[in-house]
Structures are given as structure tokens and as C-alpha cells.
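Regression report. Comparing outputs from two consecutive submissions.

Submission 1:
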Amino acid sequence: MIRQRGRRLTRRRLIATASLGGGALALTAGCGGGASKPAASSGGTSGSASAKRGGILVRSQTQKFDAVLDPHPLQPVYTSTYSLFYQSLLQLNPRTAALEPQLAMKWEQPSQTEYVFHLQPAVKFHNKPPASGRDLTAADVVFSLNRVRTDDPRFQNRLLLGSMDKVEAVDKATIRLTTKQPDVSILTNLASTSVAVLAPEVVDKAGKFSDAENVVGTGAFVLASIELQSMDVARNPDYWKKGLPYLDGVKTRVFQDPEPAYAAFTAGQILVGANVLPGPDAKKAFDEQKGKNYIAEWYKDVSFTTVQTNIQKKPFDDPRIARALRLLIDHDEAVNSWAVTWFGRGYLTAYFGAAMEDWDLTEKEYRSYLEFKSPKDDAIKEALTLLSAAGYSKDKPLKLNLSGGSDSGFSRGEAENHQAQVAKFGQGVVQIANLQLYDLATRNKVFAEGSFDFISANAVPAQPYDADSWFTTFYHSGGGRNYGKYSDPKLDALIDKQRTLFDVSQRKAAVKDVLKYMMDNAPYTSWSGRQLLNLESPKVHNWAPEGISTTWGYNYEQVWME
């Protein structure tokens, strides 16, 4: 019999201290995601008294594994899975996104620009060379945070710590971090799985972090093997949280399309997974639950589809062209065709993933903008007028290449549907000369180098549960995934302002101001947002819904099976 669990996402959470001492500030800010039923916190040292030990949990995901196992330069679409074996100072609750301790046992905030973290006692690195089971120290944290924020462009998450002035080890178990100015997002950013704590000697030896032997973390599991299509981890017998984990191991298998994933699920070959059904079937599976031997839950995704014009290339540096390309998108069709077809649920958005729904513009607010009005007649007319003013017509069409992903059916579908919309609404004035679809590694390289005209592809920021990370990753000058090199000093100032507001209502208003400014001025938008159906075997306990590639890896220390 199917069991339905709570689905409404809780957005408000405490971004303050786990243990508030004298003079510390109690700060509230919220941007979170995850379903509403609380899961056991992973921050403790023991779990449920009824939990059973043993077993190998097999899970599915859509994204292939990267050839690099270094968390610091990678997007969290990879490092969330890596949190099975790597850990950060803090973590987010897998259902409420509330800030929780991880390697930091507690922390205080003596002022708006100063944080003091106290490490958990007796944390040890995995018993693998070169760390060989040694104790974690504050020096490891200092090394790791400074490495994340290096100016080397391959460290795409550096803006997570962009407000940091310095970090220092007070003693072996205490770290003091100061920021250049008040930053309400810094604690949430420290919970990013891309800001994992590594041992310096491991980094020195690992080189390119190309195989499992290079991975030495502090997490509940030890990486046993990894390939493009699979990853196996085994229980860490020396884990610093006594009694955990319950599982002997976790196996992850990659299914790029839902049909084989669902076949594996029904055959009992995988026990948990997202996007294991095509969209219409996902909706049906959720609506027609009675008598089904699975648990079904919707997950509001942390990724979205970014649409960016490369404004560093001519003629795309003409703002009229970028504006016209935005107006030629039919967001309703993207939601009701692409998102529903592939995932079961979609939503209107220009700048945030579904997990940020409470901070995004409402559908009514989006509908007030020409780009989102239905029918598209007025938007198409305005787009053609802009293109005409820029010198383009049916006799002299604007020809461009559209770049996207080839690594999954939904990625290809997004790019192909977008191409069809341009052909339909562009009326011969705009023509897609080439549809350039790349595998993930090639796409990342092409986008980072700026070797494109126009992109429509899935993306996720370094910390998808905070507005500031979305802004600084995609839209702030120098953002790690601001591939089109959009730069606007006024927008930068608006983004910087919202980061300093500790009052939630004031910050939400400031975030709305940023979004409205971008709706009127930015050359970027989104294709569609999505929600993902998760299927779970009733044998599995303490698991939390995940994305197609986004994993609450650290939560698996609490998961157990009957």
C-alpha cells in the first residue's frame, strides 16, 4: 500500500547558532527547500532505537559521475552525492533545509561580521593514506575554506565565500571567520556540499582526484569505486558518530532516462530514486496511489533551465537581440509540454529553482511582464520590432547557434523544443543555424570558455537553498556560471544589498527588487522549472526525497532498511 508523506516545503529556517552564547546574535533568514515532514537530524551521534543495521541500499540518479572527485571546483550537482564521504562545517536538514551542525558542533556570532565555530570532538579522517585516520583540526578547515575561494577560475564556487575577509585557527578545535561586511548567507554557504573540508596532504597527493584512492574524507561512508555510471560506498568502520551509519553501504546506479529506471525499481533492483517515471506517468503514479507498493513524494527541484545570450559576442552585445530572444520563449508551452512530459510538474520562473518558490515572484507577478503573457502575440510583435530596429528581417535573418545538453532525454528535449519555438515565433527573422548538443563535460568547457551564441541548459548554483547563491552564481559580475558575461553595476549593488539584511521580511522585499530589476533589464531568463516525483520502497526508513542528481548524501548515515 502506498504511503503518502507531507509535501509542502518549509522555507523559513534558522540561520543563526546551534548554541548561542553570550553576545551572540540570533539571526533568522530563510530560503530553504525539501519536503515538510522532519527527518532525523544527521547532526547527532545516534539514531532511532528501532533502526536495523546492515544491508546495501541501491539508489538511482540521472546524472553521470564526473571524472573529478575534488569537491571544491565542482557544482553541487556532483558534490551532493559526494557528501556520502565528504563533510562540511554545517549541513541543511534534508526535509526542512534548516541549518544544522555537521563538523561544527556549535557556533556563535559575536557580531554581524564575526563567527566562531567549535569542531565536533574526535572527528577522524578515513583510515586511508595519506591522512590515515588522523584527527580533524581547525587548520584543515582554514585550508579548505581558503582553497574554495581561490581566484583560480576553475573554482566556480568561490563567490560562496566572496564576503569572507579571513579565517583563522584559534586553537586545534576552534575557527574564527570574519566577513568584510554583514552577510546573511555565509552560514548557509558553509553548508554547501562543495565547501567540504579536506586534509591538505590529501589534496597534495590526489592531484586530479581521478580515482577512489584519492578520496579521503570524514563522512559515514568510504568511497569504494566510481565509474561514469555507478558509485559504491562502504560503511566507515571508524566513523566519529558512534553507532552510525546503519547501512553497510550504498550503491548508486545511473539511469539517464526514466523507463529503465522504473523497470529496475519494479524489479527491486533499486529501492529509491527520482525521475523514475516519464512525466505523465509520474503524475498518474502520484494521483492513483491506492494499492501501490511504493511511497511517492514530489520534490521541488534545486536546478532550473538557464537561458543565456553571450553578450560578449557580436551581434549579441546588442541588448535588443537578447530582449527579443527572451520574448520568443513560450513559458507556458515549456511548462505544460516539456516539464510535464519529462517530470510530471512544472512552474513559471525566470531566475530561481522550485525550492526557492517562497522567494520567487508569484505567477501573477510573472504574468504582468510581456515575456510571460499568454497568448504570445504581443510579445512576438515586440520581438520582431526589436530585431527590425537591430537590422534584421526575413531577407537578412539573424542566424545563431543554440547550445544545450545531449546527456539525457530531457536535456535534448529542452533544446529541441526551444529550437522549435524560435522557428515558429521568429517567423524567419531569427533562425537556429545549428543545434549544438554536448555531453556534460564538453558543455561545461564550452560554456566556461564562452564558445557559444545562445544556451538553453540545466544548471544549479553552488548553494541552491539561498537567494544570494542564485544571484551571485548566474547574474552577478564574475559569477561562476554567468557564462554570457552579463555585468550590470546597479544589479550588483542590489544583490550586494540583500545579502546584508538579516530581517527576513526586509530581505524578501529586497530579493523581489532584484528579480523585478532583472525582469526589466537582464539578458537572461529561464525555460521552465520542475518538480520531480520520487519513488521509495516501504522497506526504506529515514530517507528524504532528492533531485535527479541532487543527493542528501550525509542523510544516508540515518537511513536503514527492514
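Submission 2:
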Amino acid sequence: MGPALRRRLVLGGAGICVVLAGLAVAVFREASNEVDRVEQRAEELYRFETIRRRGAQSPFGIAAATPRWIDGAALGSQLYLASATGLHRLGADGQIEPFLQVGVDLPSSPLTCLAVGLDPRSGERRLFVGTAGEGIAIVSAEGEVEMIRAHHEAFRDITALLPLDTGRLVVGTQHSGVAVFDGERLAPFQSDHDALSSGHITALTGDDSEMWVGTLQRGAFRWIAGAVAQIGEADGLPDRQVLSIEWTGNSAFVGTPVGIAEFRDGAFQRILADGFFATALTANEGSLWAGSLDEGIVEISLEGQRPRPGRPRPEIQGVNRLLILGESSLALADSGVWEFDQALGWTQVSSGSEGALTARNVSALAAVAGDLWVGYFDRGLDVVGGDAQLRRHVEDQHVFCVNRIVDDPARDRILVATANGLLGFDSSGVRRELLRKSDGLIADHVTDVAPRADGFVVATPAGLTFFDAAGVRSLYAFHGLVNNHVYALGTDGLRLLAGTLGGLSTLSGDQVDQSFTTANSQLDHNWISAIVNFRGDWMIGTYGAGVMRLDANGLWTRFPEMDGREVNPNAMIATGTHVYVGLLDGGLLVYDGDRWRIVAEGLPSRNVTAVEIEGDRLWVGTDNGLAYISETALPER
């Protein structure tokens, strides 16, 4: 080999080395950049913001609902009680007084749980309050509130809280398993079991050495010395749905819908109260108190091989929490606050406020002759006076899941659409008629109803049914309706609009004229949830594209402010000057003819499920209560 050839080979080899080295550097840089991106995404995922809140005068009034007490905790000598609508204090005289109100002192989100422990940031003892969507409130005895609101939405829906003596706060969530707040990050709980980083957490108890976790569908988990063991039906659990857990240091009692399992040092021992729906548990001097949804409270002796349940107290309905605080044993229930006395047994401390609404989950509203009719998702309906006080409650197997309430003054009746038929009431709230499938309805489930000059039309998941002088007849997809599942109706003389799961149909009389879908028009979403007429045009609420406008020429107008918003079923009304729209978790949407704006601050929840106008008063129903405000007092921003 000559010198020239050797020189070329050396130079070529050096060039290859340079190229390879360059590739290696590029690969390393890309890998390093990817690591940085992953770390940045992780930091973004686990970041949170601290929001300091100060109580302010809310523009909204709240129609008081009977409190459903969900949790309690003691900070110092003060006992705090939580309902979904606010935080209360139990006074020395036994009276329960409001302390912090949802929508004013606390975010517009239902409260879910309480705990007392060390603040991870300051080391001071504080009250921790979980919310259903807005994170964790840290509350001082003086009422100062700081919100820990995760940037990642999955860490904001809180179901359980467990402060540890090390200063960390263990957090149960509805969708993302167990997280930990250490003052600097809110991050998933680190363990050797992936199941703890996802799913619905129902219960947390324990300490730094041992922790028990209850879940909605995966049974229970025991964490000890860094290891996690899953406990299911094969391990002695009566059911994989865990409702409550009580831990005493060496024994854990796990409550399910069909009984209570006792575990000692992680090993199954026995079943207590077989078949008992155990929503709440607490241990008390050789006994276990167990509360139920509909079976009251029982005391179970833990001595001997066979547990001996005592006599239940069935009048204590809907037990959500059992507490032993110092010398007091309390039961927090839908029926009020109860205290145990050795001589008298369980006695009621509070049953709620006089004249309060029956429930919080409002699904329909209608103004009728100076009264307000309030329909509930699960508790029938109330007739409420102008003073926001209850006049009458109606609830039975038919008046249960209320979808719509419509005043029909021409026939002196109020039509109530429910999941089990269409009912007619007189103005005093007395039921006069009931229509079901056997009476000609195409389906028992009624989603909307619209009076017409000679009768009325009924919307159902199976199509439309007309009641008028011509008789009873039904119309569905076979007759040209765009989809059978009708959610909302709009009427203007003989013209009828039917909003369905698959688009919008317009009818003259009972004949379909035209149908609009995303495939043949500028309609942005086929799921139509609400319809109102505003200044001669139709405002069409959708479940995914907010509100769109349909004019008399069949032309659609998009509003850029909508951005994928979801309008709740029939949660929309129009006056001569405004359109009011209830959004799913988005607050109240207000349109003045020129622009849209959102109103949410001061409401008991951002999930606005119904709206109604009565004179100058605007009523706003949510899944966490009923609010009201003068139209002129609505915030401009």
C-alpha cells in the first residue's frame, strides 16, 4: 500500500469518525432535549397555584336547602361541619352557624370532605376542605382561605383527605387515584402499584407507617413499608366497592354495600353485619359504630368470635360520617346532626332550616303565578314562594326525576315532564292527570313538553307525541324526524322545532319540513339540548358547540365565544333583552344581543342546570342549589 493510499484511508476514517461523533452528539442532544421536555411536562402537570380568597358580598341570594351534612372535623376546640354548599361551625349552645359559603368565601364548587392536620408549607395546624372540581381549601381558625388548585384538572376533583404527621397531605381524587401535596408539588402517590395512580378513591385512613385506601371498583389497598397490597373479594372483602374504612392501628374495618370486613395486620378475620350498607364507620371502646344509607346506625360488639349487632336506629337516614371528638360521638346524616348520649341514645342536634328547599340538585324551573316551581333530578318538585320559602313538596314514583316544568295558563295547568310520565297539576300543586305509554305516549320518559293552541306536543327518547283535537299520534324517524331521541322543543304558532341527539328538525303542524345536521348545514354539533326564540331568531343550544343562531331564512350563525361549550338540557330562556344559558361546569352564559359573557362567581356551583325569569328576578338552578339575582344586578364581567 502506497503512502498516498494510506493517507486517503486515514483521512476517510477520520471523516467517518467525525460524522459518527457528530451523529452521537446530535442524538445525545435530542435525547437530552426530550428528557427536558418530559421533565417540563411533568412539572407542568404537577404545578399548582395558590389563590387567597377574601369573603365578599355576593350579588346572588341563595334559597336555603336542607343541609346534607357530609363531613366534620375539629380544629382546636371548634367543630366544623361541611355540607355541599358551605362550611359551618357548631356553637357552644348546640346551634349550627354558617362560617364560609360556597361561591363567596369558597369557590363555586360543592364541598366533599374535611380533615385537620399540618399545613405542608407552614407546619401549622389547619382545616383542609376538599371540593368537587376546584382543588383544596386550606382554612385557618380565623376564616382565612387559601386554595391549592392544581393545573391538571384531574387533581382538582377531591374525594378524600389524609394529613400525615410528616406534614404531607395525601389526597384522594375521583379520576386520578391518590396524590400527595408536599407544599411544593401536587403529584401522584409513588408506590409499586399502578392502580393507586388512577381510579375513584372513596376513603383514606392511616398514618406515615400504614395507610388504607378505598376505591369505587377495585376494592381496598393497604400500603405499608413502601409496599402495596390489593384486597378484593378473593381476599375476604364482601364487595369490591368500598364505601368506608376505619383503622385502629392493627385492625382495619372495610365497609361495603353488602357488609363489613375486618382485617388484622392485613389478614382477613371475619365479616361483620353481613348485608349492611356501610356508608360510615368508627370504632368506640370495643364496639364498631356503622352508619347506613337507609338502615340507620348499629353498634357492633367486637368481643368474641361472633359480632353482635345492636338495635338499629332507622330514623337516622343517609348517614355520611360518624365522628368521635373528645367526649362527643356524632353522626352526620341527610336527616341532620345526631349526638350519642349514654342514657338517651342518639338524639338529634339539628335537622336543617325552616322553610328550606327539599334538595340541591335542581333540574327544572318554572315561574307560575308568583311562585317558583323547582324540579329535582332525584327528589320530585317543590313549589316555592316569592320569599324563597317552601310552600309545597310533591314526590312519588312518578314525580321523581323531573326534566321540564311548563306553565300552560290557557288551560290553567302546569305540565311536568318526568322520567316516568307527563303529569298535569293545578296552580296549587295538586296533581290532576298522568299520561304514560298506556295513554298514548310513545315512551314513558318525557324530556320536554310544549303547549300549543289546540293541545300540546311531548318529546321523548323515542320520538314526538301530539295531543290535540285530532287525537293522539306519534312521529319518529320513520316519518322524517332527524333522530328519535328528542331533547328540546321550540314553538312559534304552528311551527315546531325539535332538537334531537342527531340534529334539528323543523315541522309545520306535525309534518317535518327540514332537518339540519353537521353534514348538510353549518350546524357545528348534532346534539341539540335547548331551543328558545330571541328577537325573531332561534337560539339553539348544543352539547358541544355552545349556542348557535338560526334565522328565518335557515342560515346559521356561529358565536366565537362558544369554544366547545356544553348547554345543559333545556337550561336556556330568553327575554326581550337577554338570553340566559346554563352550561355544564361553565357557569351562566349571558347574551345581551351584542356579546356573550360568563357569570359564575357567587353561584353555589358552576354546573348551571336550569334558568327562569320572574319579573326582574333571575333564578339560577345548579346541581348544588338554587340562586337568585335581580337582572340589573348581574355582574358585567
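Expected: both submissions complete independently.
Actual: both completed, but the second showed a warning that disappeared on reload.
Relevant detail on submission 2: The chain has three domains: 68-190, 238-351, 397-633.
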